[in-house]
Amino acid sequence: MLIGVVTIQGDFTEHMNMLQRLNVQTKGIRLPEDLEGVDGVIIPGGESTTLGIVGTRYGLFDALRERIEEGLPVFGTCAGAIVLAKTILESDQPRIGVLDIVVNRNAYGRQKDSFEADIYVPKLGELPVRGVFIRAPVIESVGEGVEVLAELDGKPVFVQQGNVIATTFHPELTDDSRIHRYFLQLCQG
Ligand code: GLN
Q1: Atom 4 in ligand 1: which residue has the minimum CA distance?
Q2: How far apart are CA 30 and CA 25, in angstroms?
Q3: In which domain, by residue range, is 61 found?
Q4: What's the pTM?
Q5: At 89, which CATH number?
């Protein structure tokens, strides 16, 4: 299996390290042709506006949208989730826009720029995952085809729409690989 990690900006190294720990081959993705041969793609956290500007200029966002619509599995964390979202409140920033959710950037507030919380993900067993939230977006609502895999304070923080999964937190910053393994299962199927 070969997993592409978008290496335009953000914490792609942490995702690559996590995948390497799971003995999965990784490949950095910047250009459309880099998508050749990958079984799935991770879009890391970072700054969604930068990701969007560069990803659009490189033609990567158009290529990704096409491949995702054809069924390529994709996993976005935080800024990665934002660029996957169809609706970004009060923003016309570039996006891939394949995930039917409404996100509100930085909506957990500046005071709490960063916080951690236990997140219960019923599909992953009884032990919660540690959610690391860094200037995270709030998912305000989800469309009909979107499954909410975990919530915090009544707001979705881990969602899935078919071959697309997204978290507003950063599992790659913890030692818990369950969410990455969940994604790898999608890539195998
Ligand atoms: N606040 C960032 C944004 O809106 C996302 C932060 C992150 O990815 N940790 O793009």
Answers
A1: 105
A2: 17
A3: 2-188
A4: 0.97
A5: 3.40.50.880
